[in-house]
Amino acid sequence: MASLTGRTSRLLRPASFGAPPTGERLARIQRSPQYRDGAFRNERPTRTVRPGAMLPMLRETLRTADRRRRSPAAALPLVRPAAVASGEPPASGLRLTWLGHATVLAEIDGHRVLFDPVFGRRCSPFSFVGPKRLHPVPVSLDELGPVDAVVVSHDHYDHLDMPTIRALLRGDAVFAVPLGVGAHLEHWGVPAARIRELDWHESATVGGLTLTATPGQHFCGRGLVNRSSTLWASWVAAGPQHRVFHSGDTGYFPGFAEIGARLGPFDATMVQIGAYSSEYWPDIHMTPEEGVRAHRDLSPGGPGGVLVPIHWGTFNLALHPWEEPVERTVAEAARAEVTVALPRPGESFEPAGRLPAEPWWQAVAARPTSAARAGRSLQPRPVDG
Fold first, then answer.
1. CA separation, residue 131 to residues 26, 52, 124, 138, 234 (Å)
2. Structure pTM?
3. What is the CATH number of domain 75-384?
């Protein structure tokens, strides 16, 4: 009977749900300026996904006439990261590798930082149900090699993946996370000594690198009852010569300009441009146009560095067509005179060097341009990048 009870408990609350903050961690949360009336709050009122909206959203998902447009029509052209293919450090001191969705490896001034690593097949608490990857991971964690820091923006499943975190325990990486998220990591076996748990505007150092948690406009929660008991954040990684910004998930808000003024200028900004909905969650994810605007806000007084679109292409998390986020980003970046990099999954580039600019997604979209319809037969083909 005890065994059956334990099995039932694991089914109702699997380890992937994480753990709630308690003790001194909870006391620290309660002292945070971001924690008010029993939960973390955004700086201004926001509309998140309301429980009552789930059923109509599901109905719309099922009755959408052209559901196939939310996934690619053919396999994506994967690229073997330069950090693996060549083994050479970046000549300029800064190299970025987009590994899909919000996962980016930043090699910056001799340090290797892995943002929002999700290498699992699904972004879900369960292995058998939930949004499934639309393309394979370009490279395994073992092939990617050791990293100095793992940076997590918040605890949603498409940004914090339990199996990936457990796999990263094999190295010596420091885990930089927003307030409360450390409880999940400790529950999964990460030693407290390797966790740097930060409130907005707080920093931690890893070698010669400074990691700073910066504001965002979002919400958190991995179960049904612990919504907004952990904080969300964007991040700045600054070395002696270079600095980059990672937005995590966020709606557009005025705080980007303050982040740029305090911690910029940035050589590159990795900005969320996908999984938006003006009807169901208008304030917690940016549209592509808002993503470009955020990039410009982060660069007061100048054109800024390179915009790297993230949070698109890997998981089907919204009702818009699969390729729409990047298409709209490219159009808005041209209008706003913003330099944008367009890597394929796994592709590496140095912001100071030649940028990936080919519209590769058009060959695999459900409705590609007429000139690219032959791309329907495209198969995954890892190549050096």
1. 31, 21, 7, 18, 23
2. 0.91
3. 3.60.15.10
